[in-house]
Write a structure and sequence with these properties.
It is a single chain. The chain has 2 helices and no strands. It has helices at 4-40, 49-76.
């Protein structure tokens, strides 16, 4: 016959396993729901059109300033 201590341990293990399974399933449902909610939202640009144009202008100026001497050197040498 199984002792009371063994029965308590088996009951604790069974209840712990069931609780763990329920928690995992709930977490998975929550994750899947958040993924589907994120994918269903329309995507919007991170920056407005004005910000993108300003960034492009600043980028072009920095490239010109950085590579300008190299381009002048290559142009003067006949490239």
């Amino acid at each position: 016959m199984i002792s009371v201590l063994t029965q308590e341990r088996l009951l604790g293990a069974a209840l712990g396993s069931i609780l763990t399974g329920v928690l995992i399933l709930e977490q998975r449902k929550s994750i899947y729901k958040s993924i589907s909610d994120t994918q269903s939202q329309p995507t919007e640009p991170m920056f407005g059109k004005k910000s993108r144009l300003e960034f492009a202008h600043i980028w072009n100026k920095s490239v010109d300033k950085t590579l300008g001497p190299v381009i002048q050197s290559l142009s003067s040498s006949g490239w």
